[in-house]
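EI: anyone free to look at a 358-residue chain?
SC: sure, send it
EI:
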Amino acid sequence: MFNGLGMHLGNLSRLSRAKTRSISAENFTGEKGKAGMASEGTGASCARDLGIGWKVSPSVQIGPGEVFTLADIREGGAIQHIWLTTHPANWRSLILRAYWDDEDAPSIETPLGDFFCQGWCERSNVSSLPVAVNPAGGFNSYWEMPFRRSARLTIENLGDESAVVYYQITYALTDVPDDAAYFHAQWRRSNPLPYKEVHTLLDGVRGQGHYVGTYLAWGVNNNGWWGEGEIKFYIDGDDEFPTICGTGTEDYFGGAWNFEHPQGQYGVYSTAFLGLPQVIKPDGLYRSQQRFGMYRWHIMDPIRFEEDLKVTIQALGWRKGGRYLPLQDDIASVAFWYQTEPHTPHPKLPDRDGLEVI
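SC: here you go
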């Protein structure tokens, strides 16, 4: 813990010299004593009889093709909480990025919805330790994000229409110890996954760090059970075979036996570290494939690496005769990890069509 920055019940009573600040549309800079002073904004018409201080600027409008700076912090510290909400139609077309200590390539680059375990542009409640999604679309992140000189968070709107975004970013200004690593998140998609190939969640990571989380938005293109595939972690020079190999998709996410409970149904669940919070079924008219949202946080069991890391997952179903069937599903993922800088730049995101939920 640094200077009371990362609090938990065991040290919640301890005093600290850290300074709490918060950035929102009511205080774009987070400056002390400067919140709620806006004279214009998205709430100006509603507050016309009341004036300054009465919710004049609760949100922002991000135009098509615009990159909006959510936060630009010029001191050392750590982001502790992000709250944000916008219309579900925007969840794949708004791109969240974060840059630490004036780096050129973002350490976080992912569609907004996927970062908060909402990869299908339809809300599902999430009740986990680092990510909570609450009625009716309140996104919350408690991932600790330290920085030593600066932090810049942006949202790019790839859509054709303006997006209204409400947000609040709470952070601490304090000294950051030498052994604190930087937070990273990377999005990838295989649509469809080529036959007999694996979906790569992460590759090309260089440096020391630890892997802390996985989110998958999995669209199934076959009949039958789809989750026999193993997740694999290739650590520090592993070549053909990994150091860590799971036993099945539902096993990795803390479930068992096809997530089936009660019989004939998927058992939706959301816990502190693991969850299958979303199951989207065909409706007999327009919906076709079943779609799933799953998360697994390695908070109590981070996967440590000293030099490099690669993470993959298989997509396997069943053929006749008890044989595995390599699937060609639509799999989108976010990998979450901490590492030393500099980091390897993320692969280029696909265009708007490549991101779209279809």
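EI: The chain has two domains: 1-179, 182-339.
SC: 👍
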